[in-house]
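Morning run. Coffee first, then this:
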Amino acid sequence: MSLLTKRCEVLRAERVDDGSGGDEETWSSVLSDYPCRIYGRGGRLERKERGEDDIHTVRLLGPVADIRCGDKVVVEGSAYLVSSVSTKEDGRGARHLEATLNSQ
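And here it is:
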């Protein structure tokens, strides 16, 4: 049984021509329907009131090297901004990425 009980999408911002001489920011998907686990500081996802310090961590297994600071992770309709990314290893030598997320 997998501990990755959620599915997420990773979005990346890019600047595109707005058609009138300027540019605008758009978000494109770099990973979709990807298995993940999201949890709060205490080890579980906690819903907080808007405006509170709302920091979460998302765990992604497998070859997901293409997640960066500034990307958005969307889980169950909630969007989070990635503030840091690190590679972790469990006791069996399996590697995964963990990203620190801030609610938007």
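The mean pLDDT is 77. Good start to the day.
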